[in-house]
């Protein structure tokens, strides 16, 4: 039977690439994000391959998040696969100089937003005793790097929540896992550095992971047989050995 996947943060980067990867496999898609125009463009492109429904909401807004998921039409209501991907880093500052707005954004989007979406989707999975949740963590959820403080904290939280979900949803046969990439060349650096020209140099001098590389691993995880759960993946580009060690050539 055709599966239905809900992907948050589908307007760019890893989420958008995952939408394309899933569409190629005929998976029905619920694509979420704040930038409506982009959602419409991606919907138009992917409708040639599969059925697509868009949900335009900010994951920070609890009520809108629940209303959006509640509003799904009958033919999109049964969510088999949830990809909790929406998120970003905001700023790169030592903790004594960090911005409160940046901290709020990272915790509200990366952690609380993930929880709101999950809370809105999980009850139908527990009721059916089936489902698959993939949370997009980060290498920053496995090690802390200088000035990464709150972003690393948010991604450590994503990993802890992933483990908690896997334990609590185990009685229902629901698969839960995390995919944790290192540097991926997306709009991530533009959001993190908000117009600062440093944003353009983040992926220079080496070949970073591309969004499609991560999307392929996500598809691999969701396409395993029923008895196999990919619980945790750490993936780097070849040039990266850890958060702080990247072999660059100029
Ligand atoms: P992008 O900036 O390209 O994509 C981020 C996505 O998140 C966008 O689709 C954006 O959509 C969505 N988003 C951001 N804030 C909100 C919000 N408040 N409400 C709803 N959607 C939101 O970055 P990536 O694709 O790289 O990032 C995707 C995930 O991967 C993030 O969780 C990130 O932390 C993680 N990651 C990224 C790495 C990297 O190096 N790029 C490495 C490891 C993990 P819109 O603005 O339209 O709402
Ligand atoms: C994104 C990777 O190294 O910028 O999560 O934190 S990093």
Distance from first to last alpha carbon: 50 Å
State Rg: 17 Å
Q: What are the distinct ligands in this entry? A: NADPH dihydro-nicotinamide-adenine-dinucleotide phosphate, 2-hydroxyethylsulfonic acid
The largest sheet has its strands arranged as 3-2-1-4-5-6-9
Properties at a glance:
single chain, 250 residues, alpha/beta, 7 helices, 9 strands, 16% strand, binds NADPH dihydro-nicotinamide-adenine-dinucleotide phosphate, binds 2-hydroxyethylsulfonic acid
Topology of this protein?
Blueprint lengths: L3 E4 L5 H12 L3 E6 L2 H11 L5 E5 L5 H9 L10 E4 L15 H29 L3 E5 L12 H20 L6 E7 L2 E2 L2 H6 L15 E2 H12 L9 E4 L15
Parallel strand pairs: 1-2, 1-4, 2-3, 4-5, 5-6, 6-9, 7-8
The structure holds NADPH dihydro-nicotinamide-adenine-dinucleotide phosphate and 2-hydroxyethylsulfonic acid.
Describe the structure.
- The protein has 250 residues and is of the alpha/beta class.
- Helix content is 40%, strand content 16%.
- It is built from 7 helices and 9 strands, in the order E-H-E-H-E-H-E-H-E-H-E-E-H-E-H-E.
- The strands form 2 sheets. The chain has a 7-stranded parallel beta sheet, sandwiched between helices. Strands 7-8 form a two-stranded parallel sheet.
- Helix 4 links the parallel strand 4 and strand 5 (132-136).
- It is globular and about 50 Å long.
- The mean pLDDT is 98.
- It binds NADPH dihydro-nicotinamide-adenine-dinucleotide phosphate and 2-hydroxyethylsulfonic acid (8X3).
- 2-hydroxyethylsulfonic acid binds at residues 89, 138-140, 148, 151, 182-183, 243.
- NADPH dihydro-nicotinamide-adenine-dinucleotide phosphate binds at residues 8-15, 33-35, 58-60, 85-88, 109-110, 113, 136, 138, 181, 183-184, 186-188, 191, 211.
């Amino acid at each position: 039977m055709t599966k239905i996947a809900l992907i948050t943060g589908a307007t760019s980067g890893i989420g958008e690439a995952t939408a394309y990867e899933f569409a190629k496999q005929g998976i029905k898609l619920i694509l979420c994000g704040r930038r409506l125009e982009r959602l419409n463009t991606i919907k138009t492109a992917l409708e040639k391959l599969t059925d697509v429904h868009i949900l335009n909401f900010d994951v920070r807004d609890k009520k809108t998040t629940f209303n959006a998921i509640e509003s799904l039409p009958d033919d999109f209501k049964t969510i088999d696969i949830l990809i909790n991907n929406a998120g970003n880093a905001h700023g790169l500052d030592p903790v004594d100089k960090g911005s409160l707005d940046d901290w709020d954004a990272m915790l509200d989007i990366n952690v609380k937003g993930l929880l709101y979406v999950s809370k809105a989707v999980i009850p139908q999975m527990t009721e059916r005793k089936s489902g698959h949740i993939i949370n997009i963590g980060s290498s920053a959820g496995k090690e802390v790097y200088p000035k990464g403080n709150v972003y690393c904290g948010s991604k450590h939280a994503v990993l802890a929540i992933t483990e908690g979900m896997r334990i609590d949803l185990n009685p229902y046969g629901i698969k839960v896992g995390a995919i944790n990439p290192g540097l991926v060349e997306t709009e991530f650096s533009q959001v993190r550095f908000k117009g600062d020209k440093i944003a353009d140099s983040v992926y220079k001098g080496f070949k970073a992971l591309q969004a499609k590389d991560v999307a392929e691993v996500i598809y691999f995880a969701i396409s395993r047989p029923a008895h196999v759960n990919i619980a945790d993946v750490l993936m780097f580009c070849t040039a990266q050995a850890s958060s702080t060690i990247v072999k660059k050539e100029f």
